[in-house]
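In response to the reviewer comment on reproducibility (Comment 2.3), we provide here a single inverse folding case reported in full, input and output, so that an independent group could reproduce the run without further information from us. The structure tokens appear first.
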């Protein structure tokens, strides 16, 4: 089925969901990329769908329709995405349905949220170095890992500042 989209072009739409086929292919491909990087499959599909949504937000019902999945599958996925701070749940005054939307400045927030995790990893790795001995091969490997996270964590603030400067240009 072809439906006119925009002023200049025709775009094939999925008959079941009404989503443009190109968008559906993007969502599925990006979800696969995210899954290959470790994100659970349904959470990756929901995230990619929100990323591709014009407003960056959808209801659970809209997500279920667009992805052609059960509401239960969407529920588990958005719960996971909210837990890892990639989406937030919100409800407009007077509405009965929740909307799920991407976190503002998504990638910045995601990277900055990793800072606390890296601090915890550094502490645990330091404990591991003490337990294994700093001169053991395993202790040296753990300490190198700890030093790497410490280095990355020290570099992130300047990297994020550069990102904000670039966005303002």
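Designed residues, in position order:
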């Amino acid at each position: 089925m072809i439906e006119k989209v925009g002023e200049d072009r025709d775009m094939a739409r999925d008959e079941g969901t009404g989503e443009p086929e190109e968008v559906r292919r993007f969502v599925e491909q990006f979800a696969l990329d995210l899954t290959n990087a470790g994100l659970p499959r349904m959470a990756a599909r929901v995230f990619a769908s929100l990323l591709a949504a014009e407003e960056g937000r959808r209801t659970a019902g809209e997500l279920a329709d667009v992805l052609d999945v059960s509401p239960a599958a969407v529920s588990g996925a958005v719960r996971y995405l909210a837990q890892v701070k990639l989406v937030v749940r919100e409800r407009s005054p007077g509405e009965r349905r929740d909307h799920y939307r991407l976190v503002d400045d998504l990638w910045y927030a995601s990277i900055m949220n990793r800072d606390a995790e890296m601090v915890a990893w550094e502490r645990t790795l330091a404990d591991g170095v003490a337990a294994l001995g700093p001169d053991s091969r395993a202790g040296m490997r753990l300490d190198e890992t700890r030093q790497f996270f410490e280095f990355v964590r020290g570099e992130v603030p300047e990297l994020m500042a550069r990102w904000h400067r670039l966005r303002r240009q």
